[in-house]
Amino acid sequence: MKKTMIILFSSILLLIPPAYAKNCKKGQPCGNSCISWSKTCHKNTYTYSSPIENQEKSKKPTPASTKVLVRYVIPKKLNVRTSPTIKANINTSLSKGDFVLLHHQENQWAYISKSGVYGWVSKKYLSSSPVK
Fold it and tell me: For the whole prediction, is pTM greater than 0.70?
């Protein structure tokens, strides 16, 4: 009887596929779940800790503590910078009337995003109402 039970359970275990954690790329959403060095991902989100590699990198506020607002670009062309200083590198440029998501404000600077690109702009060039 014991032999039969062992054979039965062994054959059942062979039918169950093993579970593996997905290999995720740092900085990329991981899908349902995965485990990677210094990072754990769950349900299309990710978190990871990494050392500050460059002081010019933008500070991203935590989504849970931030209320995101819609703002509109006032000038014909507005440069989006990597940090809140006029000397910072330019990520991209926006056009008059473009809408952006305002995540955070720091002094006269606004941390915004547009189509997945994040950066800093002078908040005096943003309007809370649509620009024509």
Answer: no
- 118, β-bridge pairs: 113
Mean residue pLDDT of the chain comes to: 74
- Cα–Cα distance for residue pair 97/120, rounded to 1 Å: 17
Residue 68 within any structural domain of the chain: yes
Question: Between 77 and 28, where is the model more confident?
Answer: 77
User: 120: which 2 tokens?
Assistant: 């800093």
Task: Tell me whether residue 36 is in a domain.
Answer: yes
Q: How far apart are CA 41 and CA 13, in angstroms?
A: 28
Q: pLDDT per residue over 78-115, tens digit each?
A: 999 999 999 999 999 999 999 999 998 999 999 999 99
In a domain? residue 14: no
Of the candidates 96, 99, 102, the residue with the CA atom closest to the CA atom of residue 75 = 96
- Helical H segments across the chain, by residue range: 2-15
Q: Do 108 and 74 share a structural domain?
A: yes
Give every CB contact of residue 109 below 8 A, 6+ residues apart in sequence. 84, 120, 121, 122, 123
